[in-house]
Amino acid sequence: MKNNHLLEYSILGALAFASFVLLDPLHWWMPSMVQMTALAGLVAAFAVFAAFLIREGAQDEREEQLRSTSGRTGFLLGAGVLVVGIAVQGYLDMLDHWLVYALLAMIFGKIAARIYAERL
Length: 120
Known about the structure:
By secondary structure, the chain is an all-alpha fold. It is built from four helices and no strands. It has helices at residues 6-23, 33-52, 62-91, 97-119. The chain is elongated, with a radius of gyration of 16 Å.
């Protein structure tokens, strides 16, 4: 039975859209400090959901499980640091775009690698 990836695609799309609105690269709008803080909090909370709560499959073999555990731990620590950085810099209104880009790359890479591995 193939897994339904609609949830992953929806999360990716929503996170990418919220991040685009937060970064506002085309300067379409000029948010107030309250709006910017709320949007940064929303993106940070949604990124936490996307990074930490997307389902993970357990492996049966010991070696694969150890590899999976170490990779997941590294990913979670990296995503946690980036989310804290986004939240703090969003609150200070000095958001570095590279933090958002790095978090998006990590989440997109994780989901793409899992989809690729499930198709093998």
